[in-house]
């Protein structure tokens, strides 16, 4: 009998600095008790495993924060425990996010020895002035050195870039992306800069001290990104993610297809058996809870079919493959046709913005830049 697939997300909340655009659950601390954190994460993992027995583990993702600040021995212990709690696939994908400072890059060999086979590197820009403006703790030389080390240590490497940055021109992004594509990685995450509430960039933007490119330039940058990556053989398979065929992030596809995943560590979210889980966000509160009760849970909420359907719609429409109607029904308990405005879907299909057929719904190339607006239009 085949086992139901499962993904594991592990959150490491600590960073060297807090970037001004970042709204993730990340914290700067002078010191971290590595042994206590290892024990806490292993306990939180055991708690989830007891509630999800008999699963086939397809991926592990160490996110943050800055997981490359973790001791490699802690990463190894978590991988070992996870693959004992669940049955790993022969080709399990184990990803770790890293920032390219020289200290963290020196740990890459240790992460590879621990079992990490995919590295996601936060380069964010290929320009020293822009890296400084983004609050990054590395310069371009460090970033490229870390990329070189990563490509020698790991079977698969991805890196992130942020575009649509203040002052960015079409010519500037064209040159930067062409350079990035020349590095030869099999996956790129290319994000348009967004202003997130509660960040330092949000405060600067509200005061008129941070000006982003105008909407026409932003649209051109998005279209340019799609064209250049496709021409290089790394087409978009999700709104912001591009990969050579076969090199897509299997872990993230679990999210977008609305499959089950366990989430451990401060602020981590999970979806298991129709239940939404969320851990305590503050690192000290999470660690105290794990020590006291064996897990860092803040809430467990049984989602209604309508809530599951809304989440599946929001996540699935971001994928190039779109939403498979049969999978949608099996994961949410509702038919796709019951949760969208069929009249609006038909109108948008007539405009060439999406495709709606017996297999499901997916955005066209023309519709993909407007995914958020289309979601607002069609969701009941």
Explain the overall architecture:
The protein has 380 residues and is α/β, with parallel strands linked by helices. It folds into two domains: 4-256, TIM Barrel (Alpha-Beta Barrel), CATH 3.20.20; 305-378, Orthogonal Bundle (Arc Repressor Mutant, subunit A), CATH 1.10.10.920. Helix content is 41%, strand content 23%. It starts with a strand and ends with a helix.
Write the layout of secondary structure elements.
Layout (H helix, E strand, L loop, with lengths): L3 E9 L21 H18 L3 E10 L7 H14 L1 E12 L3 H4 L2 H7 L3 E7 L3 H6 L6 H14 L2 E8 L6 H12 L5 E6 L7 H7 L8 H17 L4 E3 L2 E3 L6 H7 L4 E4 L4 E4 L2 E5 L3 H11 L3 E6 L2 H12 L6 E2 H8 L9 H9 L3 E4 L2 E4 L7 H8 L2
Parallel strand pairs: 1-2, 1-9, 2-3, 3-4, 4-5, 5-6
Antiparallel strand pairs: 6-8, 7-8, 10-11, 11-12, 13-15, 14-15
Helix pairs in contact: 1-2, 2-4, 7-9, 12-13
CATH class of the largest domain: Alpha Beta
Helix content: 40-55%
What is the number of helical segments per DSSP (H or I, 4+ residues)?
A: 15
Identify the overall geometry.
globular
Tell me the distance between the termini. Answer: 38 Å
Mean pLDDT: 95
> Which architecture of the largest domain per CATH?
Alpha-Beta Barrel
Largest sheet geometry: 9 strands, mixed
CATH superfamily of the largest domain: Aldolase class I
Unreliable residue runs: none
Radius of gyration: 21 Å
Please list the strands of the largest sheet in the order they lie side by side.
Answer: 7-8-6-5-4-3-2-1-9
Beta-sheet strand percentage? 15-25%
| CATH topology value of the largest domain | TIM Barrel
* SSE pattern: EHEHEHHEHHEHEHHEEHEEEHEHEHHEEH
Number of domain modules: 2
Number of strands: 15
């Amino acid at each position: 009998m085949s086992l139901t697939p499962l993904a594991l997300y592990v959150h490491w909340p600590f960073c060297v600095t807090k970037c001004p655009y970042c709204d993730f659950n990340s914290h700067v601390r002078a010191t971290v008790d590595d042994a206590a954190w290892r024990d806490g994460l292993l306990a939180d993992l055991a708690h989830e495993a007891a509630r999800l027995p008999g699963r086939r583990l397809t991926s592990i993702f160490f996110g943050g924060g800055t997981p490359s600040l973790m001791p490699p021995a802690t990463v190894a212990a978590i991988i070992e425990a996870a693959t004992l709690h669940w049955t790993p696939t022969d080709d399990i994908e184990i990803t770790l996010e890293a920032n390219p400072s020289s200290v963290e890059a020196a740990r890459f060999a240790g992460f590879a020895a621990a079992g990490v086979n995919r590295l996601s590197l936060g380069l964010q820009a290929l320009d020293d002035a822009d890296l400084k403006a983004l609050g990054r703790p590395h310069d371009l030389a460090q970033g490229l050195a870390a990329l070189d080390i990563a490509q020698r240590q790991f079977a698969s490497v991805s890196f992130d870039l942020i575009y649509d940055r203040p002052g960015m021109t079409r010519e500037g992004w064209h040159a930067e992306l062409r350079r990035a594509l020349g590095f030869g990685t099999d996956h790129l995450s290319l994000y348009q800069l967004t202003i997130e509430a509660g960040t330092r960039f949000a405060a600067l933007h509200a005061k008129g001290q941070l000006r982003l490119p105008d909407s026409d330039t932003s649209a051109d940058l998005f279209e340019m990104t799609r064209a250049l990556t496709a021409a290089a053989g790394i087409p978009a398979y999700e709104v912001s993610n591009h990969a050579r065929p076969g090199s897509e992030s299997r872990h993230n596809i679990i999210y977008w297809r609305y499959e089950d995943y366990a989430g451990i560590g401060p602020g981590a979210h999970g979806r298991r058996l129709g239940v939404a889980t969320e851990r305590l966000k503050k690192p000290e509160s999470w660690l105290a809870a794990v020590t006291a009760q064996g897990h860092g849970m803040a809430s467990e909420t049984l989602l209604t079919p309508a809530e599951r359907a809304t989440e599946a719609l929001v996540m699935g429409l971001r994928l190039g493959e779109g939403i498979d109607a049969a999978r949608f029904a099996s994961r949410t308990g509702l038919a796709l046709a019951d949760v969208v405005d069929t009249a609006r879907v038909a109108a948008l299909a007539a405009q060439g913005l999406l495709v709606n057929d017996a297999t499901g719904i997916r955005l066209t190339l023309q519709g993909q830049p407007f995914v958020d607006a289309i979601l607002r239009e069609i969701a009941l």
